[in-house]
Design a protein that fits this description.
Strand order of the largest sheet: 1-2-3
Shape: flat
Structural class: alpha+beta
Radius of gyration: 23 Å
Strand content: 5-15%
Largest sheet: 3 strands, antiparallel
Helix content: 40-55%
């Protein structure tokens, strides 16, 4: 069986935990058993798509109070920064895909010209 990439496995594990914590119906129990690790973290053991047992930590980070912005403004600024980074990554991926397509077309054209000589 082909191994699934770390990125895909980690994303799936995060989705499993977040869905369990935030997408469940309020009256239903959690699907997984979360264990308190310390005052800031809980952990859960899950099996990933490659059949390996993995330890997933859930942490609560309290942002520092800031004089220059409210807590709501800070949260929104972090959301905006994340969204901008994701848009930048998408634009770079599209540019790479376009370059790859052009390069492939150029190579095929060069190959065709060589064959016609």
């Amino acid at each position: 069986m082909a191994k699934i990439t770390k990125t895909a496995v980690d994303k799936a594990l995060r989705s499993m935990v977040f869905d369990d914590l935030f997408e469940r119906i309020l009256d239903t129990p959690l699907s997984y058993e979360y264990t308190k690790i310390n005052d800031r973290q809980y952990g859960v053991l899950l099996t990933d798509a490659n059949g390996e047992q993995r330890y997933v930590r859930i942490g609560a980070i309290v942002a520092e109070e800031r004089e220059d912005m409210t807590a709501e403004e800070l949260m929104q600024s972090e959301i905006n920064a994340y969204d901008a980074k994701q848009a930048e990554k998408e634009a770079k991926a599209q540019a790479r895909a376009e370059k790859a397509k052009k390069d492939k077309e150029r190579r095929e054209k060069e190959k065709e010209e060589k064959e016609n000589e």
